[in-house]
Amino acid sequence: MSWFRCNYFFILILVLPSTIYAQRYTSQECLKANFVTSIENEERFFGLIRSVLTIKKEGCIIDVHYKNILETSWLIDICREPIHIKESRFGNQSVFKRVGVCEGAVETDYCSSWKELHKTLQDYGLIFAQGEREKLETAHGKVYCSYLLAKKYLGQGVLFSKYGKNINLFDDKEPSQKIHRSETSTPAPLQQKTKPESSELVGNTKPSTHEQDSIDFDQQKAQEESLTEIQEDKRF
Question: What Rg do the C-alpha atoms of the chain give, in angstroms?
């Protein structure tokens, strides 16, 4: 009997983790899912003012609407580039495009909008949503799915496609940044300048041997002609 109990518990330990893992939705299921969920939370003034977070997802489009005293909404298309976010506030819509990683003291409008959306999903969605986050049937699962997609697309700059490579949403590793070839290419070797020949230097040119012989011959002939003229002058 003790041997049977040991084997039973051993099998249970092996099967239970795989059963739990099988219940969690996959990254592709989250990407292709369509749903609407709302989370209400009583806040200030003894619950007279309520905050309502509504998330509507249709394929690649995620619409996040947050209403407290004022209303703010964010619209993202995780399958569209360039990576951007549409923010609506006070009846006006602004479009902010991602230009790089949101780090450092200088903060762009894109980074400010993404940080506010990130905080809203955490504080008013993940904290108060009911149910298990591993199931898309629950409000917690729908918020968590939207949160993972937004974090990959807006935070890490990952572009999704329903027909392309499957991206693991549950992997928190940052995507590797590809460096352009022009940034890593080795500089071209310097061409060594050859020293010019002495005959090419200005002010220091020397005639060749053939040229020197011609010059000497011309000078000698000129001297002979001048002597001949002098002798003829003396005769007269």
Answer: 42
